[in-house]
């Protein structure tokens, strides 16, 4: 009886481990290939986009406080307006990947200092979608954040599903000798 309960618990544990692994793989794939990779491609393409003049409307450091701890993260909120072919647009993208909050307040402060309210700026806009714009074109270290983060989830998922599957396959091969 005890062996049967133990065996049932092991099977249930493997099922949960495999299920979590599949969830991690799906989440990782989505983050890496539906958020991260398009962001990298857009950042690379932005270096060839046409430019227009814009004006910073608002620039401030946003503080995000955690409800369950005393920690805070910071991000720069820079809002600018620009015009393309008589159409006015507003954007908040300073660089692709720059919308991530970090515990480093000085990073957000530097961005806000660089782009104060009422400053005239050069805006790079997507010629096929003028509502998409950026102040600093190209790929930066933070641009890779979602892609790498997605791959971390994907890796955990692969390990979580691969190890139990490999063990089962190993038992089948070794057990048949």
From TrEMBL:
Keywords: Membrane, Transmembrane, Transmembrane helix. Residues 52-139 form the DUF3592 domain. It holds the Pfam family DUF3592. The chain crosses the membrane at residues 15-35, 144-170. This is DUF3592 domain-containing protein. It comes from Gimesia aquarii.
